[in-house]
Amino acid sequence: MAVIAALIALFCAVCAVFAPWLSPHNPLDLASLELSDARLPPAWLEGGTTKFLLGTDDQGRDILSALIYGSRISLVVGLASVALSVVVGVGLGLLAGFKGGWLDALLMRLCDVMLSFPAILVALLIAGVGRALFPNAHESLAFGVLILSISLTGWVQYARTVRGTTLVERNKEYVQAARVTGVAPLRIMVKHVLPNVMGPVMVLATIQVATAIITEATLSFLGVGAPPTSPSLGTLIRVGNDYLFSGEWWITIFPGLMLVLIALSVNLLGDWLRDALNPRLR
Fold this sequence. Notes:
By secondary structure, this protein is an all-alpha fold. The protein is built from ten helices and no strands. The model has no long low-confidence stretch (mean pLDDT 84).
């Protein structure tokens, strides 16, 4: 199962990286779209054409090409938001666990406050405020706001995990030996404690990538995620939802299957990594 999930994740990553060369059409080129090609069925149904294997959406955009570019958006946003959450969460958790005292109490109360808000509502708030402040912003800024909105609550899990592990590691003999020999506290945290607390973080990060991808799709579905001109999977599902009961099921079914495939493969990889790094299962 882990090998199959790895192959699927690798296939999606290759499609995302080499999207300009693998996709039969460029869904980002709005000038090449024709409304006469809108809502064409897949090639194996009546009225379909081999030019658009999986059909087209309401703008005449090729669904297959949109899926390839949409997987790129999902993976980039998911990986970038998780990377930002890891950097912030690991740094604050390591500092809180190693220093302790009032700093530990302050950071943990901040984590409790952040956990009291649903992540999707915080992401909606940040993304909505960002769009209101920068209505004519470039796409890169819009994606930056999207990544920031997902990362704002994502760092809390890493901070609490690293803080708990650091509380155990700071009292072990190798840390005490480093302190006796006069090693600076910052060097002890970075060189000695950090490598020993990264195991659970790697497992959590792998699983959180799928959560971030689903959150991005949810925000795009609600209209506050990726820009409307971008072929995001959430945007395609939202557009296809309007035509689902009129018979154009392919507009929403294929992006939904793609989203499930990416999230499921990443989750299975995370489960395998959790078992692989668990010494009790060896």
